[in-house]
Specification:
Layout (H helix, E strand, L loop, with lengths): L2 E5 L7 H9 L5 E6 L12 H12 L2 E6 L6 H7 L5 E4 L4 H8 L4 H10 L4 E4 L1 H4 L11 H6 L16 E3 L8 H12 L6 E3 L4 E6 L2 E6 L5
Parallel strand pairs: 1-5, 2-3, 2-4, 4-5, 6-7
Antiparallel strand pairs: 1-8, 8-9
């Protein structure tokens, strides 16, 4: 029984609260906060990152930072064997995939969500769940990743690709500077999310929730 929450930004007011209400948990959930995507990101302004952390903590997620970089497959199974949920941060999804290929983290996530435990992603953490991430590839991704990007595949846990931060002024240049042209093909199954929305996946069904419509 899959239960996923794919967000643009869990730090947007109302998103974390909505996810907590959906889960209905009444105790702190031990949550691995996967920091790997930010390791090659420009974090000179980490306001969004701190807002995401606060949203999780404020809504009952007992987080601890964890990177899969440099970890073996057995390390990951040992270190994350008793967690209640996984949160994968925003950042660089292609770097995350590169590191995942070295330790089968994608398979760990698949088994984790198949067990019914919740997965939450923000931006890169949402994108990585798709079968293919090609429309998201930017020149800056190649510049930041220490290894050449040759693998555009995601974890393939959902059959669509989340395109986060739609309509956000911070991402206007990203979309209008080339991403929209790459997206404009029939072969991609895309969900464009603004920062007030997230996709809830429950088993094989999913729907988009806009927290601005919640009273």
């Amino acid at each position: 029984m899959k239960h996923l929450f794919l967000t643009s930004s869990i730090g947007t007011p109302g998103v974390g609260e909505s996810i907590r209400a959906k889960l209905g948990h009444d105790r702190p959930l031990k949550t691995a906060f996967i920091t790997t995507p930010i390791e090659v990101d420009d974090m000179s302004d980490d306001t969004w990152y701190q807002e995401d952390r606060k949203a999780l903590i404020d809504n009952g997620f007992s987080i601890f930072d964890y990177t899969i970089t440099g970890k073996s497959e057995s390390d990951i199974h040992h270190d994350l064997n008793d967690i209640d949920s996984i949160y994968v941060s925003g950042g660089n999804e292609f770097y995350l995939k590169q590191q995942s290929n070295k330790n089968n983290f994608g398979q760990f996530v698949k088994k984790f969500v198949d067990s019914g435990k919740p997965y939450i992603g923000t931006s890169a953490g949402s994108i990585i769940m798709a079968p293919n991430m090609s429309p998201c590839l930017l020149i800056t991704d190649s510049e930041r990743c220490p290894e050449p990007i040759t693998d555009h595949s995601g974890f393939g846990i959902v059959d669509f690709l989340v395109m986060p931060h739609w309509g956000s002024k911070e991402f206007r240049s990203v979309y209008l500077g080339g991403r929209t042209e790459k997206m404009y093909q029939e072969k991609w199954k895309l969900i464009l999310l603004n920062n007030n929305e997230y996709v809830e996946v429950f088993d094989d069904k999913y729907h988009i929730i806009d927290v601005r419509n919640k009273k």
